Amino acid sequence: MDRSKPVLLISVVAVLVAAIVAWLVWPSSGGAQVQRSTRGPYTVQLSVEDPHQGGNVFAVTVTGGEPDVVTIEPVMPQMGHALAPSPAIAEAPGRYRTGDVLLPMPGQWEITVSLRGPSGATQHVFPLLVK
Asked: Domain named YtkA-like: which ranges (predicted)?
């Protein structure tokens, strides 16, 4: 039996696994995460620059109506964390921004954007991976 084939196969698999793990845990170079959702009368675009543990600023762009109230509520369902909603302040028509929203730990978060205005009330939930 040729012993070199199993050794070669194991070596290739080990290199692939190491490459995948390195890619997953390597610190990102940053960049904005932008997501879009449409529900009810509103289309919402949520963006955050380089989501990280600590204070994060969220930008929200809304089309389909001009809501009176826009809030951001971070929740980490796996850990049972739910933070108080943070208001997003209008910067221009349809454009809102939060102050620093504290995300106290890395992991998978859900960011709920709640809108209330003359066109109705909706909630848009966005997944967010914090490193």
From this structure: 40-113
Residue type for position 126: F
For residues 12-30, average pLDDT: 60
pLDDT per residue as tens digits for the range 37-50: 999 999 999 999 99
Give the domains, in start order, of the chain with CATH numbers: 32-130 (2.60.40.10)
